Structure to design on (112 residues):
């Protein structure tokens, strides 16, 4: 797990109720890093809609459905590169023409 920055708000991770998200080791790791776990209710996809939407966009933009990555490492590197692009360079209409990082920084600056 990456080291998260010190933020003035609680960090939350959303997931479904998959066995991997319910494992004792995973839950303890989140707790150690002061991350609040939010699981969608059984048969309720709306709780996790934002994450599911993000994963869909990533899969489409990485051509995940038609391209086969030669190695797991190649897929991981492509995902890491895309996440950096998404957060730092990809302009979002819903974020008033800003990137997610730009929007967050503006929101944090307005808190003070």
């Amino acid at each position: 797990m990456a080291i998260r920055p010190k933020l003035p708000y609680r960090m939350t991770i959303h997931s479904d109720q998959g066995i991997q998200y319910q494992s004792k080791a995973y839950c303890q790791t989140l707790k150690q890093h002061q991350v609040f776990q939010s699981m969608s209710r059984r048969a309720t996809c709306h709780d996790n809609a934002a994450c599911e939407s993000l994963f869909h966009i990533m899969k489409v933009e990485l051509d995940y459905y038609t391209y086969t990555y030669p190695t797991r490492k190649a897929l991981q590197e492509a995902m890491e590169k895309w996440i950096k692009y998404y957060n730092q360079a990809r302009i979002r209409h819903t974020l008033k023409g800003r990137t997610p990082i730009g929007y967050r920084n503006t929101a944090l600056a307005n808190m003070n």
